């Protein structure tokens, strides 16, 4: 079965306090769609790989034939990364995490502001295109950054929160000011969604 592009879980203009409507429309309807289309094209002759979940496909990336592996890394990673990105944002987002996730963030990074600073460092330190992540790895929280559409799943890490720092994610409103985009983005982070990923 082919991979499909789900609808956004909110209207394209729902995140205006951080991300403008046109950016959301192009990002979802063109960029994410292209990752899905190109992933399906790469796997056209691979029914066994098409049958895997996108997460399993990336975790088991070494089993993908070498001739199409980089295409699956780029486009399968792009698909998985954006699925997570839409899910962990919400018009009702913002604030700080509570409960077990909040406690784990505080005990790992000192406090929430310290955590935000580390994410920002990862986001601004990524030269060119990529992502900043909060991941769970061996039962511990970690902040990492990946290039292009590389998924933390390929390193055996479970992504909990991901920030897209490709220019296509912010350029229309923020132009070259990636730091302002990162600062605004906290206002739409859906901590309930991040906490439910953490609970699994
Ligand atoms: Mn993107």
Order of adjacent strands in the largest pleated sheet: 2-1-3
Provide the CATH architecture.
3-Layer(bab) Sandwich
Helical content stands at: 40-55%
What is the tally of beta strands? Answer: 3
Structural class: mainly alpha
Structural account:
This protein is mostly helical and 200 residues long. The chain has one domain: Iron/manganese superoxide dismutase, C-terminal domain (minor pseudopilin epsh fold, 3-Layer(bab) Sandwich), CATH 3.55.40. The protein is built from nine helices and three strands; from the N terminus they run ααααααβββααα. The longest helix is centred in the first third of the chain and has 22 residues. It is globular and about 50 Å long. The model has no long low-confidence stretch (mean pLDDT 97). Manganese (II) ion binds next to helix 1.
């Amino acid at each position: 079965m082919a991979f499909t592009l789900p609808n956004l879980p909110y209207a394209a203009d729902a995140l205006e306090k951080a991300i403008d409507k046109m950016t959301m429309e192009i990002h979802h309807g063109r960029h994410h769609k292209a990752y899905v289309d190109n992933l399906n094209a790469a796997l056209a002759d691979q029914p066994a790989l098409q049958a895997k979940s996108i997460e399993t496909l990336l975790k088991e990336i070494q089993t993908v034939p070498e001739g199409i592996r980089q295409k699956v890394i780029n486009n399968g990673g792009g698909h998985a990364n954006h699925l997570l990105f839409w899910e962990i944002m919400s018009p009702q987002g913002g604030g700080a995490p509570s409960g077990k996730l909040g406690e784990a963030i505080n005990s790992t990074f000192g406090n929430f502001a310290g955590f935000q600073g580390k994410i920002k460092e990862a986001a601004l330190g990524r030269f060119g295109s990529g992502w900043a992540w909060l991941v769970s790895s061996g039962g511990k929280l970690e902040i990492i950054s990946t290039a292009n559409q590389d998924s933390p799943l390929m390193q055996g890490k479970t992504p909990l929160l991901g920030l897209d720092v490709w220019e296509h994610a912010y350029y229309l409103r923020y132009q070259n000011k990636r730091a302002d985009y990162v600062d605004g983005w906290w206002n739409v982070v859906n901590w309930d969604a991040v906490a439910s990923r953490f609970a699994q």
